[in-house]
Write a structure and sequence with these properties.
The complex is a heterotrimer of chains A (305), B (339) and C (259).
Chain A (H helix, E strand, L loop, with lengths): L1 H31 L6 H24 L8 H27 L7 H23 L4 E2 L8 E4 L2 E4 H23 L1 H11 L1 H6 L4 H27 L1 E2 L3 H16 L4 H19 L7 H15 L14
Antiparallel strand pairs in A: 1-4, 2-3
Helix pairs in contact in A: 1-5, 1-6, 1-8, 1-9, 1-10, 2-3, 2-4, 2-8, 2-9, 3-8, 5-6, 5-8, 6-8, 9-10, 9-11, 10-11
Chain B lengths: L2 H26 L5 H27 L7 H25 L5 H33 L4 H20 L10 E2 L7 H19 L2 H11 L1 H6 L4 H27 L1 E2 L6 H14 L4 H25 L6 H15 L10 H5 L8
Chain C lengths: L6 E10 L2 E11 L4 E5 L6 H8 L7 E6 L2 E2 L5 H7 L1 E3 L12 H8 L8 H6 L2 H20 L15 H14 L4 E5 L7 H18 L2 E6 L2 H5 L4 E6 L2 E6 L1 H6 L1 H11 L3
Parallel strand pairs in C: 3-8, 3-9, 6-7, 7-8
Antiparallel strand pairs in C: 1-2, 1-4, 4-5, 9-10
Helix pairs in contact in C: 3-5, 3-6, 5-6
Classes of the chains: A mainly alpha (305), B mainly alpha (339), C alpha/beta (259).
Bound molecules: adenosine-5'-diphosphate and magnesium ion.
C-alpha cells in the first residue's frame, strides 16, 4: 500500500512536468496544426537558464556563485528562466516558422525537426555535452503523508505546476486574448477575416507555451537535479504523447494526459517491466491513435472534400 | 525461355563482375591511408541504401517516416544473430578453400536477406497504424516505433543488450555494399515507373483523389513501408558486418534523422537526388571530423550543421537539390515545368 | 427490370453534427443515362457525390452501385464497381505528368504485382504498353496529348478540369460523376465542354451524373434533372418540367440576389 501511494505521488510529480510541456505542444498544434518538435528543447533551455540563473542571482545577491537555497532566489530564477524561454519561443516562431506560414506543412514539420536538433546539439556546444547538477534552489525536507514519506520538492513541483496551469486556464478561457486564440484555433481563415491579428496571437501562443516549458524545466531541475542538453528529446516525446492522449488542442486534456503518462510510467518503473519504461509512452500513443485518434477529450474531424 | 529473366540475371552478373573488378582495383591502389578511403566509400554506399530506401517511403509514397534507424537495427541484429551464432561456427568447422569461401558468401547473402525480411515485417507492423494517420502524427508514431525497437533490443540479453554485440563476422565489404546499392536503385527506379510506384505517387499527391481512382491507399502505404524497411534492414546488416560490432546506440533516432536529411536535401522523390545527397553528406561529414579536430571542439558539430542545412533548405529551396526530378531529366530537353 | 441500374440511392441522408446536409435523397440511374444534379450553392450536391463514391458514409439510407450495396465498401472498392468521379475543387495529381495522371486513373485495370514491376516481366510490359496507348488516346480526346509529359500543375485551369475527366474515364467506369466541370470556364468553353460530355456518353456508352450550379447549362444536354435545395430534393424530372417548376424558380430566384 505504501509503495502504491509512493508510486502514485512520484507519477504525479513527473506527470505534472509532462503536463507543463504538453500544454505548449497542444496550444501550438491547436492553432498551427504543427508539431513543434523544438518545444521540448525550449524546456531543456529552461532548465539550463535555471542553472545559470541560480549562479548569476547568487552572485548578485551575496557576491558568490555558491547557491544558498531560499524562496526569493527560487522565484527570481524561475522568472528569469521564464523570461528567457519566452523570448526564445518568440524568436523560434518569428525566424523559423512564420516565413513558412504559406508553405506546405511538410516544410514546417521539417523545419521544426531541424530547429529541435539545432537547440539540442547547439546546446551541447554551448552548455557542454556532460550532465550538470542543478543547484538546490530550495531546501529539501521529508514530509510524512498518509504513512509514506515524500519530499517537499514533490509538493512544490505540484503546487507551482498547478498555479501556472491555473493561470493558463484563466488566460485561455477568461480573457479576450484567450477568446482570440480559441477563434484562431477553431478556424484560422475566418478568424483572420474577423479582424483577429492572427500573427500576434500565434506569437503570444508560442511565448506562453515556451514560458510554461521553462517552468517545467526549472521544476525538473529542482526535483531530478541532473540536466543535460539532450534531456528534452525523451521528455518532449512523452509530453507530446500526453497531449495526443488528452486530445490535441485541448488544454485540460494535456494536463490529464501528462498526469496519466507520469503515473503509468511510475508504476511500470516499479514493476518487473521497468526496463521497458521508455517504450511505454509510445505503446500508449500507438494504441490511442489506433483506437481513438482524437484522444480522450478531442473530437474527431473528418476532412472536407 | 523467359528472356526477361535471363536479361536481368545477365545484368546482375555484369554488375557483380564490375564490382569485383573495382574492389580488386581499390585493394591494389598503393596510396597511404587507402584503408581509410575504403571505409569512407563503404559508408557512402550504406548511406545511399538508407537514403534511397527512405525515399521510397518519404519521397514516393509521401509517408513521413522517422523510424528508419529502427528498421535498420532490426536487420542488423537479425543478420548478425544468424552469422554470429549459426553460420560462423558452422563455417569454422569446414576446411579453408574456395568451397568454404563460396558458402560463406551465400550464407551471408542469406543472412542479409533474412535481416531485410525481418525489417520488412517490422515495416509492415509500423505501416499498419500509419493507414489512419497523416503527416506529423505518422512522424511521431514511426519515431516511437523506432524507439520501441531500440528498447526491445536493449532488453534482449542474448544479442548483447546494452553492452552491444562484438565479434560480428567481417563478411561485408565493398562488393556486397555496392551490390545492394545497385539493387536498391534498380528496384526503386523500376517500381516508380510501374503501377505500384504510380500508386505510391498518387497517395503522396492526394489521398482522396487516389482512393477515388481505385487506389487502396492503405495497401500501398504499407507496401512502401515494407519495401523501404527491407532495404533499411539490408543496410543495417551490411553495417554490422562491416564494423564487426553492434550496439543499440548506433540506431538512435539521430540516425533516422541523418537519412531524412539526405532525402530532403536530395529532393523528396528523386532517386538520383537521394544518391547525390548521401554522397555529399557523407563526404562533408568526414570533412567535419577534421573541423572538429582543428578547432578542438568537444562535441560533434555534425548535427548542428545538419540542422542548419535543413532549416535553410526549407527556407531557400524546399524542393531539395533536384526537386522530384532525376539527374537525367536535366540533360534531356527541359520539360515544360514551371520552375 | 431487365438491366440493373448503375446507381440506386434510396432514402439517403447525412448529418454533420446538427446540420442535415442531405435529406431523403432518392435516385436511380440506368446505363447510358445523362442525369443532371443541380441546386444553389451549399444545397448538398457535392455531399451527395461524396456519399455515392464512398468518401462519406450516409447516416441513413442505402446506395447501390451496379447492384451492390456500398455500405461497407471503401471509396476504392466503389470505383471498382464502376463509378468514377471528378472533384469540384480540382484534385489532379499536381506534380505528376499528365500521362501518369491518366495512367493512375486506370489503376484498377492493372493486374500485375510489385514483383512484376521489379522484374519487368512480360505481364508488366504488356500492361504498360496497353496503359500508355490508352492514356495517350484519352489525352488526345481532350487535345492534351501534346503535353503528355508536362506536370499537371502547369496546365491552365480549364485543362486541369479536362485532365480530371480523362483520368476518371481511364477507370472505364459505367457511371461517370462530374462535379461542376464547368466551374471557372468561360461561356464558350462551357458550351464546348457540355457538348463534349454528351459525346463522351455516346462514345463510351456510359451513364453520367453531372453536377451543375448553373441551371441553364444542363438543360440542353441532360435527359433528366434532379434539383436539390437545402439538402432536400425539390424537383425531379425532364428538363422542360424543371424549367417550368415554380419551386425551382423560387429556389434559384432566392439565390439570384446573391450571385
Ligand atoms: N465534412 C463536412 N462537415 C460539415 N459540414 C459539411 C461537410 N461537408 C459538407 N458540409 C455542409 O453540407 C452542406 C452542403 O455542402 P455541399 O454538398 O458542398 O454543397 P454544394 O456542393 O451543393 O454546393 C454545406 O452546408 C456544407 O457546409
Ligand atoms: Mg459542391
Amino acid at each position: 500500500m505504501d509503495s502504491f501511494l509512493q508510486n502514485l505521488i512520484n507519477g504525479i510529480g513527473i506527470g505534472s512536468i509532462y503536463a507543463l510541456i504538453a500544454l505548449g505542444y497542444t496550444m501550438v498544434y491547436g492553432i498551427l496544426k504543427l508539431i513543434n518538435f523544438a518545444h521540448s528543447d525550449v524546456f531543456m533551455v529552461g532548465a539550463f537558464m535555471g542553472y545559470y540563473g541560480a549562479r548569476i542571482f547568487s552572485k548578485l545577491m551575496h557576491g558568490s556563485e555558491v547557491v544558498e537555497p531560499g524562496w526569493p532566489l527560487f522565484t527570481l530564477v524561475l522568472l528569469f528562466s521564464v523570461a528567457c524561454c519566452g523570448l526564445l519561443g518568440y524568436l523560434n516562431e518569428r525566424i523559423a516558422y512564420r516565413p513558412l506560414r504559406n508553405a506546405p506543412r511538410i516544410a514546417s514539420l521539417i523545419t521544426a525537426i531541424g530547429l529541435s536538433f539545432l537547440l539540442e546539439y547547439g546546446g551541447q556546444m554551448v552548455f557542454g555535452p556532460d550532465p550538470k547538477f542543478f543547484p538546490q534552489l530550495l531546501e529539501k525536507h521529508q514530509l510524512q503523508f498518509l504513512g509514506t514519506s515524500i519530499t517537499s520538492h514533490t509538493v512544490i513541483v505540484l503546487v507551482v505546476a498547478l498555479i501556472f496551469m491555473g493561470i493558463l486556464q484563466y488566460i485561455v478561457y477568461g480573457t479576450k486574448f484567450g477568446r482570440a486564440m480559441r477563434a484562431v484555433s477553431h478556424n484560422f481563415e475566418t478568424a483572420a477575416l474577423m479582424g483577429i491579428p492572427t500573427d500576434r496571437v500565434i506569437s503570444i501562443t508560442f511565448v506562453i507555451g515556451s514560458m510554461l516549458a521553462a517552468v517545467g524545466g526549472v521544476l525538473y531541475g529542482l526535483s531530478y537535479s541532473k540536466i543535460e542538453p539532450l534531456m528534452g528529446i525523451m521528455l518532449g516525446l512523452k509530453a507530446f504523447v500526453a497531449a495526443v492522449l488528452g486530445g490535441i488542442g485541448n488544454v485540460p486534456g494535456a494536463v490529464i494526459g501528462g498526469l496519466v503518462i507520469g503515473i503509468v510510467e511510475s508504476f511500470a518503473g516499479a514493476s518487473p517491466l521497468s526496463t521497458y519504461k521508455d517504450a511505454i509512452a509510445f505503446v500508449i500513443l500507438i494504441l490511442i491513435l489506433l483506437f481513438r485518434p482524437s484522444g480522450i477529450f478531442g473530437k474527431y474531424q473528418a476532412e472536407k472534400v | 525461355m523467359r528472356n526477361w529473366l535471363v536479361r536481368d540475371l545477365a545484368g546482375i552478373a555484369v554488375i557483380s563482375a564490375v564490382l569485383v573488378g573495382i574492389s580488386y582495383f581499390l585493394g591494389w591502389i598503393p596510396i597511404p591511408g587507402m584503408a581509410y578511403y575504403n571505409r569512407v566509400i563503404v559508408t557512402i554506399g550504406i548511406n545511399i541504401i538508407l537514403a534511397v530506401s527512405l525515399n521510397i517511403i518519404n519521397g514516393h509514397a509521401g509517408q513521413f517516416s522517422m523510424g528508419h534507424a529502427g528498421f535498420m537495427a532490426v536487420g542488423a541484429y537479425t543478420s548478425a544473430y544468424l552469422t554470429y551464432f549459426h553460420f560462423q561456427p558452422f563455417l569454422a568447422t569446414l576446411a579453408e578453400g574456395p568451397g568454404r569461401f563460396a558458402l560463406q558468401q551465400a550464407l551471408f547473402l542469406g543472412a542479409l536477406l533474412a535481416g531485410g525480411a525481418a525489417a520488412g515485417i517490422a515495416g509492415w507492423v509500423v505501416g499498419l497504424p500509419s493507414l489512419r494517420l497523416r503527416g506529423d502524427y505518422l512522424a511521431i508514431v514511426t519515431l516511437g516505433f523506432g524507439e520501441i525497437i531500440r528498447v526491445l533490443i536493449l532488453n534482449i540479453d542474448k544479442i548483447g543488450g546494452a553492452r552491444g554485440l562484438s565479434g560480428v563476422p567481417a563478411f561485408a565489404n565493398f562488393f556486397w555494399v555496392y551490390f545492394f546499392v545497385c539493387i536498391v536503385i534498380i528496384v526503386s527506379w523500376r517500381l516508380v515507373r510501374s503501377q505500384v510506384g504510380r500508386a505510391f505517387l498518387a497517395v503522396r499527391e492526394d489521398e482522396i483523389a487516389a482512393e477515388a481512382m481505385g487506389v487502396n491507399t492503405t495497401h500501398y502505404k504499407v507496401q512502401a513501408f515494407v519495401i523501404g524497411s527491407f532495404f533499411a534492414g539490408i543496410a543495417g546488416g551490411l553495417l554490422g558486418h562491416y564494423l564487426v560490432y553492434l550496439n543499440p546506440g548506433m540506431f538512435q533516432f539521430t540516425k533516422s534523422f541523418e537519412a531524412i536529411v539526405m532525402v530532403v536535401l536530395g529532393g523528396m522523390g528523386s532517386i538520383s537526388g537521394s544518391v547525390l545527397a548521401a554522397v555529399i553528406l557523407t563526404v562533408a561529414l568526414e570533412g567535419l571530423r577534421f573541423v572538429k579536430e582543428a578547432f578542438g571542439l568537444t562535441s560533434d558539430p555534425r548535427m548542428v550543421i545538419y540542422a542548419i542545412v535543413l532549416i535553410l533548405l526549407m527556407r531557400l529551396r524546399p524542393q531539395g537539390l533536384l526537386g522530384n526530378r532525376e539527374l537525367g531529366d536535366f540533360f534531356r530537353r527541359r520539360k515544360g515545368g514551371d520552375r | 427490370m431487365t438491366v440493373t441500374a448503375v446507381l440506386e440511392a434510396k432514402g439517403v441522408s447525412i448529418r454533420f453534427g446538427g446540420l442535415t446536409a442531405v435529406c431523403d435523397f432518392n435516385l436511380a440511374i440506368q446505363p447510358t443515362e445523362l442525369v443532371g444534379l443541380i441546386g444553389p450553392n451549399g444545397a448538398g450536391k457535392t455531399t451527395v457525390f461524396n456519399m455515392l463514391t464512398g468518401v462519406y458514409k450516409p447516416t441513413e439510407g442505402e446506395i447501390r452501385v451496379s447492384g451492390v450495396n456500398t455500405r461497407t465498401l471503401k471509396a476504392f472498392d466503389i470505383t471498382k464497381l464502376g463509378a468514377a468521379r471528378t472533384f469540384q475543387n480540382i484534385r489532379v495529381f499536381k506534380s505528376l505528368s499528365l500521362l501518369d495522371n491518366v495512367k493512375i486513373g486506370g489503376h484498377i485495370h492493372y493486374k500485375y504485382s510489385w514483383a512484376d514491376s521489379v522484374l519487368h516481366s512480360i505481364t508488366f510490359r504488356e500492361h504498360e504498353r496497353q496503359a500508355e496507348k490508352e492514356a495517350l488516346e484519352l489525352l488526345s480526346m481532350f487535345d492534351l496529348d501534346h503535353r503528355a509529359h508536362d506536370e499537371a500543375k502547369s496546365l491552365p485551369y480549364g485543362d486541369q478540369r479536362r485532365l480530371e475527366i480523362a483520368r476518371a474515364l481511364a477507370a472505364k467506369p459505367k457511371l461517370l460523376l462530374l462535379d461542376e466541370p464547368a466551374a471557372g470556364l468561360n461561356t464558350g468553353e462551357t458550351t464546348e465542354l457540355m457538348q463534349q460530355i454528351r459525346a463522351i456518353r455516346d462514345k463510351f456508352g456510359i451513364a453520367v451524373l453531372l453536377i451543375e450550379h448553373n441551371m441553364e447549362l444542363v438543360m440542353g444536354i441532360c435527359e433528366r434533372i434532379l434539383v436539390l435545395n437545402y439538402g432536400k430534393t425539390i424537383a425531379h424530372g425532364r428538363p422542360e418540367e424543371i424549367q417550368r417548376n415554380p419551386v425551382v424558380i423560387e429556389a434559384y430566384l432566392g439565390e439570384a440576389v446573391e450571385v
